[in-house]
Amino acid sequence: MNRFLMFVTIALLYTTSALASESPVYTGLLSNTGAGGYDTVSYFESGQPTKGSSEYTTQYQGATWRFANAENLARFKENPERFAPVYGGYCAWAVSQGDLAKGDPKHWNIRDGRLYLNYNQSVQDQWLEDPDGFIRQADANWPTVLE
């Protein structure tokens, strides 16, 4: 019974600390990979998302980032703020509403040289109706929305 209580206590402490604040990068529940494992440089280079490889990885803001090749990995390492999705890869529209939701790397938009992810196609369609306005709102909410 002692081991059970210890397990419950540890689980509660972990859950409580996890609820205290969110990670600055969306990685999913059972992952530590940013942008769903997609090569964020590829959005800028080829204009489409490309899956990254576990062969080309780096750490940034507590997450693992994957790339399709060594060149894209090197470009990201030189300037991660340019290539990492804004708002840590959380849904940009949700952040503009003061909430957090997963950003889907298949629903994206580059605006003023920055990569924005959205939850799904419906949310992205809404985002595209007024991206500048939503960016202003999201910038005002970020990063306090993580608390």
List the defining traits of the structure above.
7 helices; two-stranded antiparallel ribbon; 147 residues; 20% strand; single chain
Assembly type of the chains comes to single chain
Question: Looking across the biggest beta sheet, what order are the strands in?
Answer: 1-2
Structural class: alpha+beta
Radius of gyration: 17 Å
> What global shape is seen?
globular
Number of domains: 2
| Poorly predicted sequence stretches spanning 5 or more consecutive residues | 4-19
Structure explained in plain terms:
The chain is built from seven helices and six strands; from the N terminus they run αβαβββαααββαα. It has 147 residues and is of the alpha+beta class. It has two domains: 29-84, no CATH class; 85-147, no CATH class. A hairpin with a 2-residue loop joins strand 3 and strand 4 (63-67). The protein is globular. The N and C termini lie far apart (35 Å). Mean pLDDT is 90; it is low at 4-19.
